Amino acid sequence: MNVGVLGTGNVATAVGEGLAASGHRVVFGSRTPEAKAGRRPPVVGLRDAARHGEIVVNATSGRGSLQALERIGPEPLAGKILIDIAMHPDREPAYPDSSLAETIQAAFPGACVVKTLSSVPARLMANPRALGAPSTVFLSGDDSEAKRLVAGLLEDLGWPPESQLDLGGLATARGPEHLVPLLLDVYDALGTSAVNINIVR
Ligand SMILES: NC(=O)c1ccc[n+]([C@@H]2O[C@H](COP(=O)([O-])OP(=O)(O)OC[C@H]3O[C@@H](n4cnc5c(N)ncnc54)[C@H](OP(=O)(O)O)[C@@H]3O)[C@@H](O)[C@H]2O)c1
């Protein structure tokens, strides 16, 4: 599929390169594409990346995500699946009674937002087997067909179906988003972010 990955940082690189390695046609979207000329997959402007994508991935900083999407505007996102991986980095919830994912969905009702991978460290997003044991990736979204397509992309990134846990509608993105303080404490306690949550049934 054509995938536009917004951002050029750790998460964008992991997910974009992982999907490209699975045969998807990936471009990255940046505020400064000219500064990243020559990168593969190629880097274009944010709006061009959104136009390219049948699926658009938000891998921008949590504080900059709405600004990034507003730069793109609603038209290139209309009718698209928008995978939101972004997290607000603060320990205090930025959206105490909501989530970034729901806020994006409300601002861009023509897109179909699916939250996933946000509780997984970037280094494991396209390489979950690096842990040597199964672990869990959550999905949240209001559209079942969109989640089915995203589940396929997660499989392409190395997440087998039994590692994927569909939490339900987009409001369930609050759980993974509000895990930020716990995750930061776990990384601090263990001295590494090479860890992930595993839900055992
Ligand atoms: N790192 C992790 O392990 C991890 C895990 C789970 C979730 N997340 C979340 O995933 C997102 C990306 O994380 P990261 O580690 O890749 O961060 P990062 O390395 O700092 O990259 C963030 C990217 O966002 C873009 N950006 C920043 N401010 C922007 C703005 N105002 N408008 C448009 N684009 C902007 C930048 O791209 P350009 O400079 O090219 O425009 C930058 O490459 C964050 O929301 C983070 O909380 C990260």
Description:
It is a single chain. This protein is an alpha/beta fold and 201 residues long. The chain contains eight helices and eight strands, in the order E-H-E-E-H-E-H-E-H-E-H-E-H-E-H-H. The protein has an eight-stranded mixed sheet with strand order 3-2-1-4-5-6-7-8, with helices on both faces. Helix 2 (46-52) packs across helix 3. The chain is globular and about 40 Å long. The termini are far apart. The model has no long low-confidence stretch (mean pLDDT 97). Bound molecules: NADP nicotinamide-adenine-dinucleotide phosphate.
How are the SSEs ordered, and which strands pair?
Blueprint: E1 2-6, H1 10-21, E2 25-30, E3 43-45, H2 46-52, E4 55-58, H3 65-72, E5 81-84, H4 100-107, E6 112-116, H5 122-125, E7 137-141, H6 144-156, E8 164-168, H7 174-177, H8 180-190
Parallel strand pairs: 1-2, 1-4, 2-3, 4-5, 5-6, 7-8
Antiparallel strand pairs: 6-7
Helix pairs in contact: 2-3
This protein binds NADP nicotinamide-adenine-dinucleotide phosphate.
NADP nicotinamide-adenine-dinucleotide phosphate binds at residues 7-12, 30-32, 59-62, 64, 67-68, 85-87, 89, 118, 121-122.
